[in-house]
Design goal:
7-stranded mixed sheet, alpha/beta, elongated, two-stranded antiparallel ribbon, 21% strand
Length: 304
C-alpha cells in the first residue's frame, strides 16, 4: 500500500489545515479521496451527542452513541480477491495529533463502537473494523473454507485498517498523526501482540489486555466445555447448566474455597488449592430449585 494518499482535488484535501469547515472537509472525503484497494462508503459529519445507525450484522440497524462532534468515515479495504475489511474512522473536531486503532473480541467480526466513541471523545482519531468478516463473538462459520478471511482475522486486518486509517486521518486534518496507539482486550490483546511482532512500526504504544496467546488450545477448551454442557443443542440437554444456575455454582465455589488463604474477601487467591465438591449442590428434599441434578453435578465435575 502507498505511504501517502492521492487525491482527485488536491486543494480540497488541504482540509482543516486550510480553513474548511469540518462538515465540508468530511463530506469531501467520500467523493475525492482515493486509496489503494479501498472504497469510501460514506463520510458524514456528526454533531454529538447523538445516536447513529451501526454498520454490519452484529448490531444490524441498531443505534450506537456518538458523544462528541466527529467526521464519521465508513470504508472497506479489499485485502485479497476473496477477503475484505469493513471499518470506520471517527475523527474528532478537536484533534491533538493522536491516532488510535481499537481491537475486537472473541471470534471478532464486530466493530467495537463503544471504544470508537471512547477514543474519539478523548480526541483520538479512532479506527475500528470488523476484523475481516461479519460474525458474532462465538460464530466460526465465516471462516469455513476461507483461508484469506482467517488471515485477516489472525494478523492482517489490524495492519490494513491502520495503514489506510492513517492516510484518511492525514487527508482530513491536512497533516499526519504525531503518535499512534492500539487498544484491545482478549482477542484485541492478541491483535495488539501480533501487531507488535509482525508490524512494529504501526504503533508507538500498545495496550494489550487478557492476551489469549495460546489461541488454538483456548478454542479447543471452549469446544470441549460446550460439549460437556450439551452443545450443539445445549438447552435441550440434561447436562445444560443455565446462567442462573452458574450464579449458584459461583456462590458455592466461593463458599468452599474463599477462606483457604485465611481471608474471607470473595477472592480465591489460589484456585489450584480449591478442591471443589460439586455434589454439595445436588438437589434434595429441602432444595429443588437453586441446585443441580445428578447429571448436572457430573457435568460440573468434568469441568472442574
Amino acid at each position: 500500500m502507498p505511504s501517502r494518499p492521492y487525491y482527485i482535488f488536491p486543494l480540497v484535501f488541504a482540509s482543516l489545515a486550510h480553513g474548511l469547515l469540518p462538515r465540508d472537509a468530511c463530506t469531501a472525503l467520500e467523493s475525492g479521496l482515493r486509496l489503494e484497494n479501498t472504497t469510501i462508503i460514506s463520510a458524514s459529519h456528526v454533531s454529538g451527542p447523538i445516536n447513529v445507525t451501526s454498520m454490519g450484522i452484529c448490531e444490524p440497524n441498531s443505534q450506537v452513541l456518538v458523544s462528541s462532534a466527529i467526521c464519521r468515515v465508513e470504508f472497506v479495504i479489499n485485502t485479497t480477491s476473496t477477503s475484505a475489511v469493513y471499518a470506520e474512522a471517527w475523527l474528532p473536531d478537536t484533534w491533538y495529533g493522536r491516532y488510535l486503532t481499537v481491537g475486537n473480541s472473541g471470534l471478532g467480526g464486530c466493530i467495537d463502537y463503544g471504544n470508537l466513541d471512547y477514543g474519539a471523545s478523548l480526541h483520538f482519531a479512532t479506527i475500528g473494523s470488523n476484523n475481516g468478516h461479519d460474525g458474532t463473538v462465538l460464530d466460526g462459520r465465516p471462516f469455513l473454507n476461507k483461508p484469506e478471511v482467517i488471515n485477516d482475522f489472525a494478523f492482517r486486518a489490524i495492519h490494513a485498517q491502520t495503514v489506510i486509517g492513517k492516510q484518511i486521518v492525514e487527508a482530513y486534518y491536512g497533516s499526519p498523526h504525531q503518535k499512534s496507539y492500539f487498544l484491545g482486550c482478549s482477542t484485541g490483546g492478541r491483535q495488539g501482540t501480533q501487531a507488535a511482532l509482525k508490524y512494529p512500526e504501526d504503533f508507538d504504544g500498545i495496550v494489550a489486555g487478557a492476551v489469549p496467546a495460546d489461541w488454538n488450545h483456548l478454542v479447543d477448551l471452549g469446544t470441549m466445555l460446550a460439549r460437556y454442557v450439551g452443545a450443539p443443542y445445549a438447552s435441550a440437554s440434561p447436562s445444560f447448566i443455565s446462567s442462573a444456575l452458574w450464579d449458584v455454582v459461583a456462590t458455592e465455589v466461593l463458599k468452599q474455597c474463599d477462606e483457604l488463604d485465611g481471608v474471607k474477601d470473595e477472592i480465591i487467591t489460589e484456585p489450584d488449592a480449591c478442591n471443589f465438591r460439586p455434589e454439595a449442590l445436588l438437589c434434595n428434599g429441602d432444595n429443588t430449585t437453586a441446585c443441580l441434578s445428578n447429571v448436572q453435578v457430573e457435568t460440573l465435575r468434568k469441568i472442574y
